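thread from #wetlab-drylab

HS: before we spend reagent money on co-crystallization trials with alpha-D-mannopyranuronic acid, can we at least see a predicted complex? here's what I'd submit
DV: go for it
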Amino acid sequence: MTFRMRNLGKSFMIMMLSASVFFVSTAVFAEGQKDTTAGSGEKKTVKITAASMFDENHPFTQSYYKFEELVNEYQDEVTIEVKYALNKSLGIETDYFRFMSQGESVDLAILAPANIAQRVPSIAIVDMPLLFKDVEHRNRVLDSDLFQSIGDDVVKKANIRMIGYAGGASRSIISNYPISNMDELQGFKLRVQGAPIWAKVFDAVGAQPSVIAYDEVYSAIQTGVIQGLENEVVSYDQMRFFEVAPHYTSNEHSLTVRPLFMSEKTFKKFSPTVQAAILKAGKEAGAYGSQLELDQSTVVREKLIAEGLASFHEFSDADKEEFVKRATPALLEYVEEAGFTDLYAGIQKIK
Ligand code: MAV
């Protein structure tokens, strides 16, 4: 089921903002490029826009800040100045994907792979549930070249380029009633992300998944359309989901990979030297954001407990095993159907 509320006021604001940002960035780029190639000898400023659903403290936003700092350290041809569109001022990740893909309004954004899987189905494997054994395994897989062909596919089909990986935190179950074991999970109505693998897995473990846009989840819980979702603890806090779903069950069914993307149109406007600096800065900024998200997760969890805003529950090892047992056939079926048998085996082989 897809639940999408119409919000004309908000869409209109986004349209107007997008239009004006588009003209500003186009003008700046055109000018920046013209002046640089004119060989005036002067270092030019190129303005790009980074979009985030969150505020300045969120690890995604912090990754953008780090990127801006590093990219200017690693090359001296241009000054890249990043404008930050935070707190959903340009919509949600599905909007950023559309904008970057069209080469308009947003140049830089961290996106959940599930948000672009409709256009590039292969990317869903990068972050599918239960893929990684632990954070170290995740990091080693990302350091290998296993996802290179997926990155190429994304450039070709979606006109955006992966320049680094943020994320790395675990996703767990969030609900408006306590869930401490597999029995309590049965029939749980939860929101899942758009890539089909997510609904498949939650169906297999006995819950009732529906695909709902991220910015509509809060009101969907409030109005009883669903009873919760699955998410990382830092985003749980930033989105204030605890107000409508104060139970967080740390079953850790996934470790996230959140690629940092740049619009290919934007990337291509830079010289090879600047592009190399973008790739280096992107990689390091992503890794920085991942570590930060891990660190923040502990602090945020403690804060939510101390302030009495959420109750945290644990799955026993037996319940975790049961979750894995029920989910695995659905995962393997997906891997086979999607033609990822070799890639999946390659990921599992990495120690
Ligand atoms: C979290 O806020 C992030 O992982 C973000 O990248 C996702 O889009 C979001 O959850 C979500 O579940 O849609």
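DV: The longest helix spans residues 272-306.
HS: ok that's useful, forwarding to the group
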